[in-house]
Amino acid sequence: MSEVRNPMVVSFAVWKAIFLREALDRLFDMRAAWFWLLAEPVLHIGFLVFIFTVLRMRTVGNADVAVWIIVGMLAFFLFRRTAVQVTYAVDSNQPLFTYRQVKPFDPALARAVLEAFLMAIISTIILSVAALLSHDTWPHDPLLVLSAVFGLWLFGVGYGLVASVLMALVPEMEHILKILMLPLYLISGVIMPLVVIPQPYLDLLMLNPIAHGLELVRAGFFPYYHTVQGLSMEYLYAWAIVSLFLGLMLYRRFALQLVMK
Predict the structure, then answer these.
(1) Which of 129, 154, 165, 175 lies 20 to 30 A from 245 at CA?
(2) SS3 assignment for 214-228
(3) Which SS3 state, helix, strand or coil, does residue 39 take?
(4) Cα–Cα distances in angstroms (integers) from residue 203 to residues 94, 147, 198, 206, 228, in the given order
């Protein structure tokens, strides 16, 4: 007589298997795939550092401009990559749903955790190289940095869950969501200091929770960084938690549509 396995044991086994499958796919799906994971943020950072150097800007808000760009870019990439990977998690793992143990949320969770792991490695490499180039890359307040980074990652997971369900119900939403990422890149303070934005436009930009996350990460790195008024960790986490719960509710409600599309 076969032994009945604990549901949590089964879930962890499924998550581990999907995590390893996704890791192999991300790192070895194409030639030098691991290199391009690192090259994308490096190229973005290098281009912006070059532009700011040409403009002869050494500091932004009393912070080293190179580290300011690196920190903001890496924080935004964590959100964006997590959101995109979770959004397409169900589509990319359709064959796995023939196994009754695999639920739609399983590949989404595995991809989100994998993305956090990969971005941690990429961030360590880039910040270490910057430190070797005589930039001070050690955070002044590591706890603040970790809290803001986790909030951005959590919001990326929630965003991806909601987006994947919307795309399953309305396929045309994919085009809208792809277009939405570019404005988010521009209005989140990745390439432009928010302190230079005049009112009332600044108040509108601060409705964006990603802007709060990026500025909080930077505030954690630089002890004398001039942040914009109204930064709120609670606001970032409110968006993250609400989007996560909404995504989980939608996954539960439309699980069949996600699997059968």
Answers:
(1) 175
(2) HHHHHHHHCCCCCCC
(3) helix
(4) 42, 23, 9, 5, 10
